[in-house]
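Chain A, query sequence.
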Amino acid sequence: MGLVQPPTRRALTAGLLVLAAYPARAQATQADTLMTASHQAGRFAQARFNARLILSSRGGADRVRQLRGAGKLLEKGAASARLMRVEGPADMRGVATLTVERQAAADDLWVYLPSLRRVRRLVSSNRRDPWMGSEFSFGDIVGHEVADWRHVILRRERMAGVACTLVESLPGRPGLASETGYSRRLSWVRDTDLVPARAQFFDLAGGLLKTMTAAEVRTLAPGKAQAMQITMRNERSGAVSRLEFSDFRIDVTVADSEVAPGALKL
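Chain A, predicted structure.
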């Protein structure tokens, strides 16, 4: 089957403006539609990019990791795979992760550690583990499947001067909170390009755990956008991790074999 095209920003905005006239079920449907469109806006048929992962902690020097990555939609758009490999520093060169988000099945998570010379497949409970030692979890990197959560539109707000819709997301199936480590998420979705300008993640006890902010959002194709800078702050420790993308291209060809477990080893 072909890719489902997300609603246009104009149609979504028009629907949100009349939200007050809708009953609760219709509002939930509108929230699902918005989150689906936001999710689709960040999925690319094929992509290549470079990135820097900057790890900062209170009182410590920054640690910087150079990354190279590729991504592709697989299975006629039913899955989205992304492989990222560390290019430097030397002591981490070759470390790689592969995340495969599946819409109708469990996600696949893989990691390659050169020191062990083995590819390891992770299980669902590893979704909450730190990705490459950062404040991003594997679940944050693979993405949060829209259908797994129950979404409710709370209100309209402005974030960094851009009109946004604030959406609350609660676990929609048993075990999801334990898998992800999140009992609740808040997303500020921008009207302009449907990219979340900000997101907050709450731990299993309901306390604020992490805050994500997006900056330098670029429209790469009609209905497709990418934040060139994504920052995740741990509200408990004060540690900050920042992903800075560069040379992000979607006018490329990526073979299926480049985003498969066999590609993790150099």
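The chain has one domain: 9-251. Confidence is low (pLDDT under 50) at residues 1-5, 18-22.
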